[in-house]
Amino acid sequence: MKTIQTAALMALSALFALKAEDRPKTVRVTNITPNLYANEIEPSVAFWQRLGFEKIKEVPAGNKLAFAMLRKDNLDLMYGTYSSLDQDPAAAKSYTRGTSFLCIMVDSLDPIVAATKDAELVAPVHKTFYGTTEITVKDPAGNVITFASRT
Predict the structure, then answer these.
(1) pLDDT of 60-112, one tens digit each?
(2) pTM of the prediction?
(3) What are phi and psi of 95, to 5 degrees?
(4) Which residue range forms the structural domain that includes residue 89?
(5) Which residues are CB-contacts of 24 (< 8 A; sequence separation ≥ 6)?
(6) Cβ atoms within 10 Å, residue 82
(7) Is residue 43 part of a domain?
(8) Is 37 exposed, middle or buried (CB count within 10 Å of its CB: 0-12, 13-18, 19+)?
């Protein structure tokens, strides 16, 4: 961990040592969309639909899905299958399978607790020292999802 922190500080120091004209230009970020992967995505799509997300795009692969995009309000979430990812030679050699982690701020935990009652519980509803109330569950693909509220 100390090595990572040292490397990060060195990178920041190098960046700030650059002349203003050599620094990266500021770019306005308009959206960040998580793109999660699983062996099969249908159970994860159903999980998010219980939370009010709508499937807005899908790419079939036979009688299964290779990709799905979900949306709630102005938030998007994408799921793809590892088998579809493996069809792209560059992608296939550039990733390792593993758990992803999401933290999602919500205005109320009660509907989330009800909608995730069948999900694998990682941490029950609890108050944190930094002022939120949270619940953490796993989606059907094994990704760890923390829902947090400031109320």
Answers:
(1) 999 999 999 999 999 999 999 999 999 999 999 999 999 999 999 999 999 99
(2) 0.80
(3) -135, 160
(4) 31-149
(5) 15
(6) 15
(7) yes
(8) buried
